Amino acid sequence: MSNLDRQAVPSLCGGRGFVVAEPVRELLNPRRVMLGESTEVRRLLPNLGRRMVGAWCFVDHYGPDDIADEPGMQVPPHPHMGLQTVSWLHDGEVLHRDSEGSLQTVRPRELGLMTSGRAISHSEESPKSHAKYLHGAQLWVALPDAHRHTDPRFEYHAALPQVIAPGLTATVLLGSLDGATSPGTTFTPLVGADLALSRGADLAVPLEPDFEYAVLSMSGEVHVDGVPVLPGSMLYLGCGRTELPLRAESDAELMLIGGEPFEEEIIMWWNFIGRSQDDIAQAREDWMSGRRFGEVQGYEGAPLPAPDLPPVPLKARGRVR
C-alpha cells in the first residue's frame, strides 16, 4: 500500500534513543488520511509521539467501510524500496499485482507480505466483484542495512499458526508468539499477531522483555494493561514486559506488534526507506524515469507520480554523536 500524501515529509526514524526502556502506557491517536478517492485511513505510525515499534515503521488502519456500491480500495502502481509491506484484512479482499509478476487476492486473516528490497512496484485494489465491507490494516517493516538491497519478492500465506487459550485466538502474522512461528520471512527479531478476544476474556499474553510493543485496536471494547483502547487507536507499551494483561468487555480484535528496538536511523519519505537524502532522491528519479522499479501489468490506470522532494535535505544520523 502507498503513502498517497502529496505533501510527503521526510521522517527520521529508528535509533534506541527513541525507545522507552520500561513498561509504559502511551496512547497514540491517529491522523486521518485519504487513500485515493474512496478510502480513508487512520495513520498511527509514524506518529507525532512515536515513529517506530521495533522494525515496524508504518501502520494504517481502515474501515470497516461499506463499499457495496463503491469501488473500494483503488491504489495505482507505485514504488517501494528498503521495506516490507504487510497486508492484513478482517473483511473484504484486496487484489495485489506487482512488477515481479505476482497476482494474488488476499482475504481475511491471510498474509500478503511483500519484500521490496532494492526496488519493486505494486498496485492494490478491491476486485470488481467484492464483499460489502472492507476492514483491515497495512503495515511496513523497515529492512536493516544488511538486507535493504535484497531481491524483491511477494509471499502469500493462506494458513498461519495460532495460539489458542480460553477466550483468545491469536494468529501469528510474523515472528513468534508463545511458541507459534509464522512462515513469513523476517530480517530482524519481531512479532506481529492478530488477537481475537471473546467477551469476558481476562488473560495475559506472554511477551519478550527485550522487545518493545504496541497494540492496535481493530474492533470491540478492550482494556490493555488497564487502559481502554478504542478501535482505530494504538497503545504503545515500551519494553521490559514479560506479559500483557487483556480484558475484553465485548468480543474484540487487536493487533499486537513488537520487536527488538531498531538501532539504525533511517529516512522514510513517501514510499521509500533509505539512509541518506541521496538514496531518496535517486529512488524518486528512477521511479519518475521508468527505471529500476519495473512495471505492474494488468492495472487499469496510470502509475502514481511521486511528490516533489522537500527543499531542505535531511540526513540520517546515528544515535551516538
From TrEMBL:
<dbReference type="InterPro" id="IPR014710">
    <property type="entry name" value="RmlC-like_jellyroll"/>
</dbReference>
<feature type="binding site">
    <location>
        <position position="78"/>
    </location>
    <ligand>
        <name>Fe cation</name>
    </ligand>
</feature>
<feature type="binding site">
    <location>
        <position position="124"/>
    </location>
    <ligand>
        <name>Fe cation</name>
    </ligand>
</feature>
<dbReference type="Pfam" id="PF05726">
    <property type="entry name" value="Pirin_C"/>
</dbReference>
<feature type="binding site">
    <location>
        <position position="80"/>
    </location>
    <ligand>
        <name>Fe cation</name>
    </ligand>
</feature>
<keyword id="KW-0479">Metal-binding</keyword>
<feature type="domain" description="Pirin C-terminal">
    <location>
        <begin position="193"/>
        <end position="291"/>
    </location>
</feature>
<feature type="binding site">
    <location>
        <position position="122"/>
    </location>
    <ligand>
        <name>Fe cation</name>
    </ligand>
</feature>
<protein>
    <submittedName>
        <fullName>Pirin family protein</fullName>
    </submittedName>
</protein>
<feature type="domain" description="Pirin N-terminal">
    <location>
        <begin position="41"/>
        <end position="141"/>
    </location>
</feature>
<dbReference type="InterPro" id="IPR003829">
    <property type="entry name" value="Pirin_N_dom"/>
</dbReference>
<dbReference type="InterPro" id="IPR008778">
    <property type="entry name" value="Pirin_C_dom"/>
</dbReference>
<dbReference type="InterPro" id="IPR011051">
    <property type="entry name" value="RmlC_Cupin_sf"/>
</dbReference>
<keyword id="KW-0408">Iron</keyword>
<dbReference type="Pfam" id="PF02678">
    <property type="entry name" value="Pirin"/>
</dbReference>
<comment type="similarity">
    <text>Belongs to the pirin family.</text>
</comment>
<dbReference type="InterPro" id="IPR012093">
    <property type="entry name" value="Pirin"/>
</dbReference>
<dbReference type="GO" id="GO:0046872">
    <property type="term" value="F:metal ion binding"/>
</dbReference>
